[in-house]
Specification:
By secondary structure, the chain is mainly α. The chain has four helices and no strands. 86% of the residues lie in helices and 0% in strands.
Length: 160
């Protein structure tokens, strides 16, 4: 992913930046850092578009499943009407139609649940990555301001 590449470059820049003697601080080229942040901003929308696309695909799968279930119901109804002349045949057709409906509803539920779990997994992964990125950005900004990262974490804990 492009985002990880940019973050690796940013990390390498920080690691290779000159250190201020007797401190844990480094001097960072402001223009390069701002360039990395701009590149991250342009990469994030692509990640979000991919997540949105996954959600749309899930909805398409659900719609297709509903259509298939409707088609199965229509087929069962047509079979039932063709055999309506004999009561025994009607009973068998009704049982078959009920089974088809049950199976179609079960398949639809399973597909819907699978699509939701998949979308949730993708979005969860994206959320974790965004959290990591935000933490790295906050840590970098805090370090640039000369604030200890533990002070920022403690400050956020007391505010939240």
């Amino acid at each position: 992913m492009e985002l990880f590449h940019i973050l690796n470059e940013m990390e390498e820049m920080i690691e290779n930046s000159p250190r201020i003697p007797m401190t844990r601080r480094v001097m960072v080229d402001e223009d390069r850092l701002l360039d990395y942040l701009d590149r991250i901003r342009t990469t994030l929308p692509e990640e979000l578009r991919q997540a949105r696309w996954l959600l749309q695909e899930r909805e398409k799968v659900l719609a297709d499943t509903r259509k298939e279930a409707g088609r199965l119901l229509e087929d069962a109804q047509k079979q039932l009407e063709k055999r309506a002349e004999e009561s025994e045949v009607v009973k068998k057709a009704q049982a078959m139609a009920d089974e088809i409906v049950h199976k179609a509803e079960q398949v639809a539920r399973e597909i819907k649940q699978g699509a939701r779990e998949y979308a949730d997994e993708i979005l969860g992964g994206l959320e974790e990555e965004l959290d990591k990125i935000m933490t790295q950005i906050r840590n970098g900004r805090a370090e640039l301001r000369g604030v200890k990262v533990s002070d920022v974490v403690n400050s956020r804990a007391t505010q939240g």
